[in-house]
Amino acid sequence: MVIVRGRSVPERMIVRAVLALLIAGLFAGCAATGPREALEKPVEKAESAVDPAARAAFDTALKAMREGKDGQAEQILLTMTQDFPQFSGPQANLGILYFRAGKLDKAEAAFLRALEIKPDNVVSLDYLGVINRNKGRFKEAADFYRRAIAADPNYAYAHRNYGILLELYMGKLKEALAQYEEYQKLTKGEDKQVAKWIVDLSRRSGAKQ
């Protein structure tokens, strides 16, 4: 369980989307491609200039992650960070592995290394927002979420997570409402839980009487 809004939400919902992003953006810094339903399937790009060995290793790591073989995936990704240090995808994937294992310090370090390679790596920015929020660093979390949204306004989870921070941790109800509404627009309103949050928050914030 990873994202909390007074309750836990299954991490697999985030990880499935993130893995698809990482396949699409392995060598471009994990660029996001659109709303959540579009992220359930890998979006392949022409990568003729990429070392086939790097591509094969990354695909093997992703397969291991999907199958829950995190130890195997970690070893492959660690090797990739040494052999192909110019790519942010392996670092971001390591961050995901450490995050879901509850190793927040190691996850944070991996995501920050991904940003050193590609500063607008939206997956890493979003996860760093969650990590900083979990550590009580709300201003820093907000900064990471804003950077994620600036990097890719269509990355829906950044809007959702930023809304959670604004509502529950910063008391900015109207701003939170705007983020939830943007998330719903990007995901075509399929998140019924967030739909309930919007109704509740609209009433509490006075935005809609």
Question: Which features would summarize this protein structure in a list?
Answer:
Serine Threonine Protein Phosphatase 5, Tetratricopeptide repeat; single chain; mainly alpha; 209 residues
Fold and architecture overview:
The model is unreliable at 6-48 (pLDDT under 50). The chain has 209 residues and is an all-alpha fold. It has a single domain, classed as Alpha Horseshoe (Serine Threonine Protein Phosphatase 5, Tetratricopeptide repeat). A two-stranded antiparallel ribbon has the order 1-2. The chain has eleven helices and two strands. It has helices at residues 11-25, 36-39, 52-66, 70-83, 89-100, 104-117, 122-134, 138-151, 156-169, 173-186, 192-205; strands spanning 3-4, 8-9. The protein is elongated and about 55 Å long.
% residues in beta strands:
under 5%
CATH class: Mainly Alpha
Oligomer: single chain
Mean pLDDT score, rounded? 80
What is the helical fraction, as a range of percent? 55-70%
How far the N terminus sits from the C terminus, by CA atoms, comes to 34 Å
Count of alpha and pi helical runs: 11
Biggest β-sheet, characterized? 2 strands, antiparallel
Low-confidence stretches: 6-48
Quickly give the structural class: mainly alpha
**What is the total tally of β strands?**
2
Q: What count of domains describes the coordinates?
A: 1
Order of helices and strands: EEHHHHHHHHHHH
CATH-defined topology = Serine Threonine Protein Phosphatase 5, Tetratricopeptide repeat
Say which CATH homologous superfamily is assigned: Tetratricopeptide repeat domain
Strand order of the largest sheet: 1-2
CATH architecture: Alpha Horseshoe
Radius of gyration: 17 Å
